[in-house]
Amino acid sequence: MRFLHTSDWHLGRAFHRVNMLGAQAEFIAHLVATAREREVDAVVVSGDVYDRAVPPLAAVELFDDALHRLAGLGVPTVMISGNHDSARRLGVGAGLIDRAGIHLRTDPASAGTPVLLRDPHGDVALYGLPYLEPALVKDEFGVDRPGHEAVLAAAMDRVRADLATRAPGTRSIVLAHAFVTGGQPSDSERDITVGGVAAVPAGVFDGVDYVALGHLHGAQTLTDRVRYSGSPLPYSFSESTHRKSMWLVDLDADGAVTAERIDCPVPRALARLRGTLDDLLADPELARHEDAWVEATLTDTVRPADPMARLTARFPHTLNLVFAPDRAPEDPEASYARRLAGRTDQQIAEDFVTHVRGAAPDTDEQGVLAAAFDAVREDETLREVAR
Known about the structure:
Oligomer: single chain
Strand order of the largest sheet: 6-5-4-1-15-16
Keywords: DNA recombination, DNA replication, Endonuclease, Exonuclease, Hydrolase, Nuclease
Distance between the termini: 81 Å
Low-confidence stretches: none
Radius of gyration: 27 Å
Number of helices: 11
CATH class of the largest domain: Alpha Beta
InterPro entries: Calcineurin-like_PHP (IPR004843), DNA_Repair-Maintenance_Comp (IPR050535), Metallo-depent_PP-like (IPR029052), Mre11_N (IPR041796), SbcD (IPR004593), SbcD_C (IPR026843)
Order of helices and strands: EEEHEHEHHEEEHHEEEEEEEEEHEHEHHH
Protein name: Nuclease SbcCD subunit D
Subunit structure: Heterodimer of SbcC and SbcD.
Domain Nuclease SbcCD subunit D C-terminal: 267-355
Mean pLDDT: 91
Strand content: 15-25%
């Protein structure tokens, strides 16, 4: 059986205020074209179809278009809900949509009930484990101490129990949305930590032929049989080194796995630049980033004037500006209270301006600060009198 493994579409999400709906539509077109050209037998989507529980109408319309196009190909599609999705909203109409070959698995209670597909070598059972929030599903799975590992282990017990009732040689695929030990996170995934623990060991999934994971945005191979597809598009600058792709997986008659990465169309490259403003504007080596989405970290000791306007003159797609001045570190042994001891409010405020801007306030600015403190003290005096 040949199938496409993808996840974390996050339909409706922006990238630093840049609308990504057009890029998401381009990805859907690429997915459908790949499914047709590579003659896949199924598509699996491992959660976070939407970016939030109540997605914007345009995102819902794009999802509807994706379902119609996949159904039109006659390619069965199995989807689970992720931690960004509203499982109940995503699952509305699942029974009816099922007849069109689109199988939405959003109910934890159905974890042990597979979608059964067939190829020339026999049955393939696809089990959808939607994102399992421990506190919400502990009763369903009879778990005393809710945690990610405990609820996933209980769900996998149901999978293995059902698989044991199937005909010999039945192959198995599990879709899950979780943080599995060994995976490398990025800044754009929502934290799913419970009780200080978010990760679960890959061994939880033992006993199945392939585990199609979602949640982490970088494509990763934890084992030959346990993989993250990653998100098809970047959603934070921490993903600047990612290669956005899907897995094209072949499952042979004996359940052996071979996988190929299929690159996804990305609207623009990402670049994280660091240095003084003058260096960033002058360095000829940075010419290759002039058409990229840019995050610039300025190391100037004094904050330069109009940095964003000057940066965008060379890098018109600069989206994020960070200040990290190269300064000698303060004495870590000196407590905050000790550093302030004996200093007036005026001096503390002037120190703050110096720290943030890299230069001390001038005479006029000192006067503004003094007037502000005088006004506050006068207000406090009037309140005391009023009492």
